[in-house]
């Protein structure tokens, strides 16, 4: 018998899916990107529209902890995680299918809350709920969401397609969700320690850290970035959403695009609350930005010629550039030192933080 850890998450996916041939000419892209890409043009339609589809599952105890996750936020987040993968293809989400499994103690009102969050996400992103599945569970709650979207064939953006000299851009800021999770986990331990003790229970105080808590509990899929790119007339050469940390996602882009890369530490966008909390935890903030997960920002590349255009887009940051593949993947620190990027992702952090998600 082989331990799954010897393959790792991506090795396992490769291992399981390698013997499946694609039978249909309509299947343009299968396993391996943020979404699969299908070509189903209807009569009278030109063949310029592409369908994209993606699915993600969230498990209680692995991806969420109901002691501090409001169900409404959970529903919203489960939808955002999928919408984010559709936007990462430079596509527009259209439909959702929602499958849930829940234990015997779950009440109708709990599921109402979960669906209230999904409804807000559907409204904000103009997406139709069109199906799903409902079942019971002996091991806690699970939510699996599938999203279907579409894009013009000439706008569709995969992980492949970046060129040697392309600029590397990232939206928003990184590492905030990681510290949000650390704060929630810390408060959970404090709360657990107080149980049974005589002292009055204190409420967690997240004053000045609200943004970090919001980033982990209520992430936003960056439709605004996809729209801004479109308005600026920019089609990224490659794109991916950041669910596992900048390092790991950059490695995917470089692997699929057959490039190397150089990114500059001081250019990695970090929010003030993230930096302050990193200091409090005695942690290097860039370690969290590179390897923490769940930021759901977009990482993309554009040709050097579009530099002046891309820097005008609000909340988009230039962090480096692609290189020839033989030059490798490097992070440059402000003092000029170069470090090879490692894909530690959640798996690495999980060894220090047993409560962190692993996929
Ligand atoms: P993302 O982080 O963008 O959601 P993942 O890292 O989960 O993507 O998955 C990488 C690729 O592998 C995707 O194309 C996904 O559809 C595919 N994949 C993941 N798990 C499986 C599985 N059990 N069987 C088949 N394909 C899978
Ligand atoms: Mg993705």
**Rough shape?**
globular
The N- to C-terminal Cα distance equals: 22 Å
Radius of gyration: 21 Å
Helix-strand string = HEEEHEHEEEHHHEHEHHEHEEEH
Strand runs, count: 13
Report the bound ligands by name, code or SMILES: adenosine-5'-diphosphate, magnesium ion
Total helical elements: 11
Largest sheet: 7 strands, mixed
Strand content: 15-25%
* CATH architecture annotation of the largest domain: Alpha-Beta Complex
Kindly state the percentage of residues in helix: 25-40%
The fold-level CATH name of the largest domain is Phosphoribosyl-aminoimidazole Synthetase, Chain A, domain 2
Structural class of the secondary elements? Answer: alpha+beta
Strand order in space, largest sheet: 8-10-7-11-9-12-13
Runs with pLDDT <50, length 5+?
346-359
What is the CATH C level class of the largest domain, in words? Alpha Beta
The protein's oligomeric status is single chain
- CATH superfamily of the largest domain, called what? PurM-like C-terminal domain
Overall number of domains: 2
Characterization of the model:
The chain has helices at 8-17, 71-87, 108-124, 176-194, 210-217, 223-231, 246-257, 272-281, 285-291, 307-310, 345-352; strands at residues 27-29, 36-38, 49-59, 92-102, 128-136, 142-152, 167-171, 238-242, 260-264, 297-302, 316-323, 329-332, 338-340. The chain has 359 residues and is of the alpha+beta class. Helix content is 34%, strand content 23%. The chain has 2 domains: 4-152, 2-Layer Sandwich (60s Ribosomal Protein L30, Chain: A); 167-340, Phosphoribosyl-aminoimidazole Synthetase, Chain A, domain 2 (Alpha-Beta Complex), CATH 3.90.650.10. Strand 1 (27-29) and strand 2 (36-38) form a beta hairpin. The chain has 11 helices and 13 strands. The strands form 2 sheets. The chain has a 7-stranded mixed sheet, with helices on both faces. The protein has a 6-stranded mixed sheet with strand order 1-2-3-6-4-5, with helices on one face. The chain starts with 7 loop residues before the first helix and ends in a 7-residue tail after the last helix. Helix 2 (71-87) packs parallel to helix 3 (108-124) and helix 4 packs across helix 5. The model is unreliable at 346-359 (pLDDT under 50). The structure holds adenosine-5'-diphosphate (ADP) and magnesium ion. Magnesium ion binds next to strand 8. Magnesium ion binds at residues 34, 85, 88, 240-241, 243.
């Amino acid at each position: 018998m082989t331990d799954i850890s010897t393959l790792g998450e991506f090795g396992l996916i490769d291992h399981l899916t390698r013997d499946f041939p694609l039978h249909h000419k309509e299947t343009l892209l299968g396993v391996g990107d943020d979404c699969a890409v299908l070509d189903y043009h209807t009569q009278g339609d030109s063949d310029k529209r592409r369908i994209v589809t993606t699915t993600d599952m969230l498990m209680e105890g692995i991806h969420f902890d109901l002691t501090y996750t409001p169900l409404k936020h959970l529903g919203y987040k489960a939808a955002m995680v999928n919408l984010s993968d559709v936007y990462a293809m430079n596509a527009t989400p259209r439909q959702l299918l929602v499958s849930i499994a829940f234990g015997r103690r779950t009440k109708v009102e709990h599921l109402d809350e979960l669906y209230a969050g999904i409804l807000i996400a559907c409204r904000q992103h103009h997406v139709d709920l069109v199906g799903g599945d409902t079942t019971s569970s002996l091991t806690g709650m699970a939510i699996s969401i599938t999203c279907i979207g579409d894009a013009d064939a000439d706008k569709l953006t995969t992980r492949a397609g970046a060129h040697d000299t392309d600029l590397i851009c990232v939206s928003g800021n990184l590492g905030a969700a990681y510290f949000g999770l650390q704060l929630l986990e810390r408060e959970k331990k404090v709360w657990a320690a107080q149980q049974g003790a005589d002292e009055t229970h204190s409420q967690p105080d997240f004053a000045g850290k609200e943004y970090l808590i919001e980033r982990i509990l209520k992430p936003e899929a960056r439709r605004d970035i996809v729209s801004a790119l479109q308005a600026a007339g920019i089609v990224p050469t490659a794109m991916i959403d950041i669910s596992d940390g900048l390092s790991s996602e950059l490695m995917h882009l470089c692997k699929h695009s057959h490039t190397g890369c150089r990114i500059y530490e001081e250019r990695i966008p970090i929010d003030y609350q993230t930096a302050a909390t990193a200091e409090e935890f005695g942690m290097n903030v860039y370690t969290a930005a590179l390897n923490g997960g769940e930021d759901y920002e977009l990482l993309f590349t554009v040709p050097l010629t579009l530099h002046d255009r891309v820097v005008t887009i609000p909340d988009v940051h230039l962090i480096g550039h692609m290189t020839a593949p033989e030059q490798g993947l490097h992070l440059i620190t402000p003092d000029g030192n170069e470090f090879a990027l490692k894909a530690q992702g959640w798996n690495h952090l999980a060894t220090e933080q047993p409560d962190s998600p692993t996929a």
